[in-house]
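Running this now, will post back.
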Amino acid sequence: MGSHTEDTSMYVASMDAVVNRWFTSYEAARASLDAEGGYLFPYRGQFFVTLGEGVRELGLDPGDPDWERIGRDWVRPKDREAWCRLKDKRELSA
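Update: finished.
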C-alpha cells in the first residue's frame, strides 16, 4: 500500500512535551517502531514515532483497536478501512 499524505496534521504543538523519535526516512522510522514500539506518523517530509500520550494530543485514543489493525503505522497502514476510521476521528477532533 502506498504512503498517505493528508491535509490533517498529525503533529500538534502540545506534542512537544512528549518524547518523539524523529527520522528522515520511512525505513528508519519503521525500524524504530518495530524495535521500540509506539505510533508512526508523517510530518512535512519526515517521520516520527510517538507514544500513547502523543496520540492523545491528536485527540485520538491510543487504545482504539484500529491502531493494531493498521500496525500503528499511519504512513503504510495494514488495514485501509481501519485507517480511514482513525482519519475520520482525527478530522473530527482537529
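The chain has a mean pLDDT of 87. More later if anyone needs it.
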